[in-house]
Amino acid sequence: MSDYKKIKNKYLDKLNSNLKIEELNNIKTELFGKNGLISNSFKNLGQLKPDERKKHASDLNSIKEELQDKINAKFQQIEAEEINSKLKDEKIDITLPERDISQGKIHPVSQVIDEISSIFSEIGFSVEEGPDVENENYNFTALNTPENHPARDMHDTFYLDNDKKTLLRTHTSPVQVRTMLKGKPPFKIIAPGRTYRSDSDQTHSPMFHQVEGLYIDKDITMGHLKGCLNYFIKSFFEVDKIKMRFRPSHFPFTEPSAEVDIGYEMKDGKIIIGEGDKWLEILGCGMVHPNVLKNVNVNSDKYQGYAFGIGIDRLGMLKYGINDLRAFFETDYRWLNHFGFDPLDVPSNYRGLSR
Ligand code: DAH
What we know:
The protein is of the alpha+beta class.
């Protein structure tokens, strides 16, 4: 058998066995690489006599073609096998049941705070915060509520020490004091947050939420207060018209003071805001008392303005038809799933402020 035939038979055997792609590449180099068997055989043709050379060249060419065809076919075969085995392994099993998707919900109180902040931000109020644990001075005295003032009892305060110096804030009004002490007028802020009083029934919870408002400048009047609250209530309840009345009241930190009622009626067991002849109290407000301004070093001959305090939970209950305040804070997951808000399902007046 000629040398060429030996090479051919040996390599055809190899090529017929099971090969990996690297092994096939090696075979290709062994035969056709720079110093490969076939390449060298071609080089050696030159040393032969002319009549032998022709015959050898023709044999060598046919062996070369045969081996090359075989190698190419083998490459295709290996690739096809790889693809098939991938398809087999990576097949999606559509019979598997889908995984549970659990999406969190936004608590109605967070939602309402975002809505309120968003509405007031649009008309130039910035958002301030204060601590839940407050001192007696900022919560009462600086707000013109002297020792023995009945308001201190009315608030059913949770004191944190025997001297009654530290307490859980009973309202968000101390943020007024903190804001004015640390800055210079004008002030135009709201302050949403948690507040605490020892009280619990269907419409009261020991922890609840308020938003404080404060606007102090050179010529702010009760007229501005009315316009601002009217705009806020309409935006919040998403109505064009609202019935609103100011009822004279008393707060130590405002003079004059008022409580604001909005008109409503019941239709098919649902509350309709802004219509009808029933009244619902929703907030307290007034012109900031000159004593309060004095306590925070603001000249009351030059500056004046209004303040208000709104019960957030109450507003949320009215807007979203929730009738027991305590459910807000029971952390019942089923309740939250029902009354909570989808992070992407936002009402039309919500403008994307997030906390
Ligand atoms: N702090 C009052 C309360 O908790 C609410 C309030 C009334 C706040 C009048 C004010 C205000 O700023 O001017 O009942």
